[in-house]
Structure formats: structure tokens, C-alpha cells
Design goal:
Blueprint (H helix, E strand, L loop, with lengths): L1 E2 L14 H27 L2 E2 L2 E5 L3 E3 L4 E2 L3 E4 L3 E3 L2 E2 L3 E4 L3 E3 L4 E2 L3 E4 L3 E3 L14 E2 L28 H25 L1 H13 L1 H24 L7 H30 L7 H17 L3 H24 L39
Parallel strand pairs: 1-3, 2-5, 3-6, 4-7, 5-8, 6-9, 7-10, 8-11, 9-12, 10-13, 13-14
Helix pairs in contact: 2-5, 2-6, 3-5, 3-7, 4-5, 4-7, 5-6, 5-7
Length: about 350
């Protein structure tokens, strides 16, 4: 059964308009004949049999009322507080299902919105309809937000162990090769630096710590004087040579002591420097990074300081060796010795 409502008809229309109102009267009679049984059933109880259809009017299904068929409205809004066992279809209006209401089948709205606040049995939806979610409390937007098209920052991948070892080898291997070259190019100077390193290690450490600051001071002075700017590369080269010679002296000292412990008699220079450089390589190349950096810095400061001590206490010249003073020969002392043999004349009287 269907309840069909066309609209209100003014029964007090003038007689002159009887011809124009005749079709509406006929349609009204047809609507009354069709919807009479259904409306009587709806008014007799809280359960409506059949469909509920409206033209140009709103439909309100009150709370507690159940509709066994469908609810259809043309040009009006539908408010459902009760329960509809069929579908709810609206043409040109909105469909509002309240929290206490429910629609068991489809919900369709052509040209309107569907507001679904039902908490008991959520209605089914169609693809061509637009479902409006229940209103939510407004929350203040944050002051700063990330743009939608901005991609999140991806954390950088940690360095691989192979890359770390390659970087360390690119620093240590050339340093050791240059130290070996300095040992063979300046053997006398390296021996002299080793002696001063053994004699005054604390002074060597102190000067090695201050050496970078001293180098910066010298470079600034040479740059300020302008005319001495060409000497800046000379100062840098001299500093690097002092570092390499001092490191060669440290390697020679370590190699000599280890070979003495191993009871190697009269070791060759290559064996001495090779053993010492091997110890430095193990300490700075095959240890954790933090320990390797500390040892590399300590060895560098000690090497530079020992070279500075040697340069300050020796005669000028990179290959020169501290000279030894000439030995003083005592003057001969005149002594009187009597002549041997018999005297031929009177005895000599000493003057």
C-alpha cells in the first residue's frame, strides 16, 4: 500500500475557474482512493503497513513508529525518528536519519544530502549518493602544518663499514708512506729527533700541543707583512716535514724497542722503521674510530713537538748534526833532566 499526497486543493475557488481546477480535482480523488487504506492503518496504530509517498511535502516518521514498506518523497525532506523496514528515497530533498531512527534497506537522495546519525542499525548506501557524517566538535587547527604534497623526510642511511674503512685507509696509508720516505731521506735528523724524544718527552708533548697555534701565528705574521707572503708555502712545508721526521723518529723508537725485546741483534734500518710503522698502523687503523682519532692526534703532537725540540737545540741545517767541541790538548811542561854519563868539566850550575 502507498500513501500518496499531491498537495492542498482550495475548495473555495471561484466558479469561473472550474474548468481549470477539474484535472486537479480528479487527481485528488484518485489520491484519496489510493492512500485511504494506508493512512487509516497508519493512524490506527504505531505500525504502518505499505509504503509512504509524498509529493511536494516533508515526511516525518516519529519515534516509535515502524514502516513496513518504503518511504518516498518527491520535492521534500524526510526525517526519520522511527524505524523503516524498507528503503528511504528522496528526490530533490534531504534525508535525515536521527540517532533513534533506522533504515534497514537502501537510502537514496537525488539532489540532496543524507545525514546519517543512526546509532542502532546504520543504513546501507549507494554509490550515487553523498553521505554527510555526523557533526563533530571543531578543534583549532595547529599554527603550522605540513603541506599535503610535502613528502616526509627520510632519515639518511648510516654509513656502511666498508665506506668508513675506505675513508680511514685514505688518510692513514699515505701518512705512513710519507713517514717512511722521510726516514730514508733524513736519517741523521731522524736519529737526532729520536734522541731528544727519549731525553725530554714532556717538553716534546708541550711543544706539540702548542705547534698548531704557533703555525697560525707565523702564517698571520707573514700575511700581514705582505712582502713575506711567498714564504707561507715554505712555512707549511717546513711544518709538514717536522711532523713527518718526528713521526719517523717515534716509529724508529718503537721498532728498536720491540726488536730489542725480541732479542734481534743489529737490526736493519728497514726492519726498525717497518716494525714501528706496523705498531702505529695497528693503533690507528684497526681500533674503534674514537680511539684511533685520539691516538693519531697524540702521535702527531708528540712527533711535531720532538722535531721542534731538536730544531731549537741543534745547529742550523736540516741534515746537520750537533757538533762536538774540539778536544783541548794540555801544554807540555818543561822539566830538567841531568845529562847521563860522566861529566867532562865542572858540574853545571842550574840557572
Amino acid at each position: 500500500m502507498m500513501n500518496v499526497r499531491v498537495g492542498r486543493v482550495n475548495s473555495t475557488a471561484p466558479l469561473g475557474r472550474a474548468n481549470s481546477a477539474a484535472p486537479w480535482a480528479a487527481l485528488l480523488v484518485l489520491a484519496l482512493l489510493v492512500s485511504g487504506p494506508s493512512m487509516a492503518a497508519a493512524g490506527s496504530g504505531r505500525y504502518s503497513h505499505g509504503d509512504v509517498v509524498e509529493f511536494g511535502s516533508d515526511i516525518n516518521i516519529p519515534a516509535g513508529q515502524e514502516v513496513s514498506g518504503d518511504v518516498v518523497d518527491f520535492g521534500g525532506n524526510v526525517a526519520i525518528h522511527g524505524k523503516v523496514h524498507g528503503s528511504a528515497v528522496v528526490f530533490g530533498g534531504d534525508l535525515h536519519i536521527y540517532p533513534e531512527g533506522a533504515v534497514e534497506k537502501d537510502t537514496v537522495s537525488f539532489g540532496g544530502e543524507i545525514i546519517n546519525d543512526s546509532t542502532s542499525t546504520p543504513p546501507k548506501t549507494k554509490k550515487h549518493q553523498r553521505v554527510v557524517p555526523p557533526p563533530q566538535s571543531e578543534t583549532p587547527a595547529p599554527m603550522m602544518s605540513m603541506p599535503e604534497d610535502a613528502a616526509p623526510e627520510v632519515p639518511a642511511a648510516p654509513e656502511s663499514p666498508a665506506h668508513a674503512w675506505a675513508v680511514r685507509a685514505s688518510i692513514i696509508v699515505p701518512d705512513l708512506l710519507l713517514t717512511l720516505l722521510a726516514f730514508f731521506l733524513f736519517p741523521l735528523r731522524t736519529k737526532n729527533v729520536e734522541e731528544y724524544l727519549v731525553a725530554q718527552p714532556l717538553l716534546a708533548v708541550f711543544l706539540g700541543v702548542l705547534a698548531p697555534f704557533f703555525l697560525v701565528f707565523v702564517l698571520v705574521v707573514l700575511a700581514v707583512l705582505v712582502i713575506t707572503i711567498p714564504l707561507i708555502p715554505v712555512a707549511l712545508i717546513a711544518f709538514v716535514l717536522a711532523y713527518l721526521i718526528g713521526k719517523a723518529a717515534i716509529a724508529a723508537f718503537l721498532g728498536r724497542r720491540l726488536l730489542e725485546v725480541a732479542k734481534v741483534n743489529d737490526p736493519q734500518p728497514l726492519a726498525i722503521i717497518g716494525t714501528g710503522l706496523g705498531v702505529i698502523l695497528v693503533v690507528t687503523g684497526f681500533t674503534p674510530t674514537w680511539f684511533a682519532v685520539i691516538m693519531f692526534s697524540v702521535i702527531g703532537a708528540l712527533a711535531t713537538g720532538a722535531a721542534l725540540v731538536s730544531f731549537m737545540r741543534t745547529r742550523p741545517g736540516l741534515l746537520g748534526v750537533q757538533g762536538t767541541p774540539y778536544a783541548t790538548v794540555p801544554a807540555p811542561v818543561a822539566t830538567f833532566t841531568p845529562p847521563s854519563g860522566p861529566a867532562s868539566g865542572p858540574p853545571a850550575i842550574p840557572q
